Amino acid sequence: MALIRLLQRKPDGEIVFREPTNGDVPAYAILSHTWGKEEVSFQDAEAGIGKGKARWEKIQFCAKQAAADGLQYFWVDTCCIDKRNAVELGAAINSMFRWYQNAARCYVYLSDVSKPDTGADDQRVWEEAFRKSRWFTRGWTLQELIAPRLVDFFSLEGERLESKLSLESEIYEITGIANKALRGDALSNFSIKERRSWAEHRNTTIEEDEAYCLIGIFDVSMVPNYGEKRDQAFRRLEDEIHRMYKGVDFEQFAVGLNLASFPEATQFVAREKELSKMHELLHGHSDRTCVVLYGLGGIGKTQLAIEYIRRHKEKYTAIFWLNANDRDSLKLSFRDVAQQVLKYHPSTRLLAGGDLDDLDQVVYAVKAWLDLQKNTRWLIIYDNYDNPKTPGNLDRSAVDVRQFLPRSDQGSIIITTRSSRVSQGRRVHVQKLLDVKEGLEILSNTSERKDIAEDPGAVELVKELDGLPLALSTASAYLEHVSITLSDYLRLYKASWLKLQTTSPQLESYEDRSLYTTWQITFDRIQQQNPASASLLKLWAYFDRQDVWFELLRHANSADDEWIRKLTKDELNFNEAVALLCSFGLADAERSLQQQFGSGGGCFSMLSGKSGLY
After folding, report:
1. Domain Heterokaryon incompatibility: where (predicted)?
2. How many CB atoms lie within 10 A of CB 26?
3. pTM (predicted TM-score)
4. Which of 228, 223, 266, 244 shows the shortest CA–CA distance to 90?
5. Tens digit of pLDDT for each residue in 406-438?
6. Which long-range contacts (CB under 8 A, 24 or more apart) does 391-396 make?
7. Of the N and C termini of the chain, which has fewer Cβ atoms inside 10 Å?
């Protein structure tokens, strides 16, 4: 960051330059404004003739307000940069975001917003002019709004209006900038596309500045070259963004995104907490990062992975989607990857000339390509890894995903699975939607029924389906094709759940899986791994989601319940059976009740909404 030249207001009111030094920068205020005629330049201030300019009043305002806030130093862009010095100007442009970010206070002076001296603090008298202010249309003021922590808005008369924090809702409505960005969240948490959108309706006096004013927003560096024209400036900016996120050699490994290999994701609703956690775990690390999304079938793991890609695809040189349901599907997915790589890099030595029908060789070659030293910015999704080879899983078709992972410590991986026993990376538990509004959004989007938020039948149906995205989507698909009310569907649902599921239209976003088959697959896996777990689950359904514990079942003595006696022969058998149900997201340990029953009476609850399945 370049050294900053500050203005200093002396005790006698004189304003002088404090030349930049290598020492610590004192606390300072900073001005944000739109330029007009007769602004005070560096040369004017240096020659002592700035006071004769019409815009000297801005500098006086900033000095006075800084003093009121206990600050002796301040910065104004018109006169604190020697714009005749190309080196200094370039350094300032590349440092300006951080200068605003480091300021103790930022004062936004709105020359087109007046606050009449009525004696009343009424926002209505200036809000309309505030919303229409030219300041919100200028390119450079974007970073001046986002970067500083404390921002106060002032009228033409120098009267304080409100702060960025108190006007957050209005600013969002005017600019479309997310509240989290306004509050100081790291801009890397926002996609490149979203950050670009913040500047779409802003303009600059000099055409190249439309690109240069975004240097800080994307945290890149580039030398300004006035005269190169707008399009060339944006091309250079794009190159710097790619180098920043994808590496200097990104073109050597860049592969276009093949959307045909991705499942549809039309029912997604925002899971901001999970998306934020994924970004935290996957972004900004030099070594390999891996996130495991686990949860019940149909809970939205695949859609969550797709949404992450949609938001952050610009940060990766290549993104590949693999079907990890079984070994054969994985090998075929690797062949698709090989074909994608060859399409963009036909001379790739590791793949060119190879036999794409020799799937084992293809897997080896693709992994070797991913292991290349400078190929570090790829992302691979291993989807539907639902039958992992884990201790106790004797299924011969179980998959050991480690055989299909690149060996080098680089790149990023997302695994989606129903099993909580997958331990290849940092785990993110994808749970049911807790907000009724999100469930209503799925119902509305898929069924194309609008204004259902006030429909009591819709609200009751969402609650009955318990925040399960696949259940909500299945209901929506049925409602799209049948002219019945949501209350009528709820009545049918309660009367004949299975018939509704088997007759509902198939959902493209879940391939050929209906709600019934999705959970039937889970049940079959449980049956294979531990028949006692499956029997317990069926019995448990009759309890209508009531809690069960070891002591409750151990006294069963019916001749028809031999499996119960074996299950409760000792507590280890019981815990092992329930643990398998927990690993598939069908049950959970009820900690508070465990304490009531003591150490010998572990208590478990069936997760709400599952008892009707079995």
Report:
1. 28-118
2. 12
3. 0.61
4. 223
5. 999 999 999 999 888 898 899 999 988 888 888
6. 392/529, 392/530, 393/529, 394/528, 394/529, 395/525, 395/528, 395/529
7. N
